[in-house]
Amino acid sequence: MKIGVNARLLLDGPLEGLGRYTFETVSAMAKANPQDEFVLFFDRKIESKYLIHSNMSGQLVYCPTRHPLLILFWYEILLPIHLKKHKISVFYSADNFLSLSSKVPTLLICHDLAFRHFPEGLSKFYLKYYQTFIPKYLKRAQSLGTVTEFVKNDIKEYLPSVESIFVAPNALPSILDNALTFDQVKDIEKPYFIYVGSIHPRKNIERMLQAFLQFNDENGKKYAFLLLGRNAWGTGNVQELLTQPNIHHINDADDATKQRFISKSIGLVYVSLSEGFGIPILEGFAAKVPVITSNTSSMPEVGSDAVLLVDPLSIDEIASAFSIISSNKDFSTELIENGNQRLKQFSWSKTGEIIYTKLKSCI
After folding, report:
1. Under a CB-based contact definition with an 8 Å cutoff, are residues 149 and 301 in contact?
2. How far apart are CA 291 and CA 332, in angstroms?
3. Helix/strand/coil (H, E, C) string of the chain?
4. Alpha carbons 323 and 168: distance in angstroms, whole number
C-alpha cells in the first residue's frame, strides 16, 4: 500500500498539535508496517528530520499555505496532480482539511469544531473558509476520525448526515528535538505553577492570570507563574498581565525542556474555554504534577479522575484551585497517582493501529 500523507504542518521548530499528531501517527504506522510506503507531501520544504523510517519519503508540493486562497490552491490544484503522479493508494490528512477534487480515497482527522463555538478566535478570511469548506471536507472523507468522543458527538450534532466517525486519541509527545539542559534556561526562584500552549483568546489566559494574581495576593506573593508558549493573536490584555511581578513568559521550548519545566512546577494549569483534546493534560501526567483543567468540552473526558476540574469562566473558582493544589499535599498526590494510571490509556502505537486499519478499509 502506498500511503500519501499531508505533511503541510510538519515545519521546522517545535511541533504544535496537528503537526505533532501527523508526525506521531505516521511514524507509528510506518514502524509497524515496513511493507508499506509512506509519502509525505510538504508545502514549503522537505523537513527530513521527520522521515525517521526507511519506508518514509518526502515530496515537495511547493506553495506555502499561509492564506485561505493558497490553501485552496494547494489542495485542489497542486496536490491532486502529485497524488496521481506518485500513484498514491490512499491519502491521510490529519489537519482538518482535504482535497475535494482528488479521486484518491481519503482518511480525514478532524480535531475540533472550534470555529463553530468560538468564531471570534479566527480572522474573517479563515472563518469564512472554515464555515464554507469544513462541512464539505467532513462529508467528502471516505473515513472520518477524531480525537475524543466529545468531538465525535459535536460533529454528529453539526452534521447529522455524517454517521460513521471513529476515535483515535492523542498521546504523549515523544522526544524529537535536541533538548536544552535545565541549566541553560533561567531558573525560577519561587515555587511556580505552569501553563503550556499558545497565548490565544480561546486558551483563557486572561482569567487564568487574574485568578493567579488573586490567589498570590492572598498568599503573600510567595508563588510565581510560568507561561510556556508562543504569542498567537488577540492577546492585548494578556500582554499587560505578563509584565506583572511573579509572572514569567518563555516564548517556546523543545519537548524535553518543556517537561523539565513542568516537572519542577507545583502544578500544570490548563483552563481553556474549549478543546478538541488538550495534550498539556497528558504532559502534566507524565511530569508527575497535579493538573487543573476546565470542566468543559473534551477536558473532563481526557483528564477523568486525575484532574481538578474548574469552571473556566470563574476567576474565583480557578483561584480556589490554586489554593487547593498548593496546600493539600494528599489530594495532589492522589491526582498524580491517578494521572500516572490515566496516561497508560494513551499511546501512539494504539492510535496508529486504529488509523492504519481505517486506511486499509478505504481502498
Report:
1. yes
2. 9
3. CEEEEECCCCCCCCCCHHHHHHHHHHHHHHHHCCCCEEEEEECCCCCHHHCCCCCEEEEECCCCCCCHHHHHHHHHHHHHHHHHHCCCCEEEECCCCCCCCCCCCEEEECCCCHHHHCHHHCCHHHHHHHHHHHHHHHHHCCEEEECCHHHHHHHHHHCCCCCCCEECCCCCCCCCCCCCCHHHCCCCCCCEEEEECCECHHHCHHHHHHHHHHHHHHCCCCCEEEEECCECCCCHHHHHHCCCCCEEEECCCCHHHHHHHHHCCCEEEECCCCCCCCHHHHHHHHCCCCEEEECCCCHHHHHHHHCEEECCCCHHHHHHHHHHHHHCHHHHHHHHHHHHHHHCCCCHHHHHHHHHHHHHHHC
4. 35
Ordered by where they begin, the domains of the chain are: 2-171+347-362 (3.40.50.2000), 182-343 (3.40.50.2000)
Percentage of the residues of the chain whose pLDDT score is greater than 70: 95
pLDDT digits (tens, 9 = 90+) for 121-144: 788 999 999 999 999 999 999 999
Question: 247 pairs with which residues across the strands?
Answer: 225
Do 193 and 266 touch, CB atoms closer than 8 A? yes
Q: Are 291 and 319 in contact (CB under 8 A)?
A: no
Task: Report residue 213 as a C-alpha cell.
Answer: 494574581
Least confident of 129-143, 216-230, 249-263, 274-288: 249-263
Hey, what amino acid is at 184?
Answer: Q
On the question of pLDDT at 306 being above 50, the answer is: yes
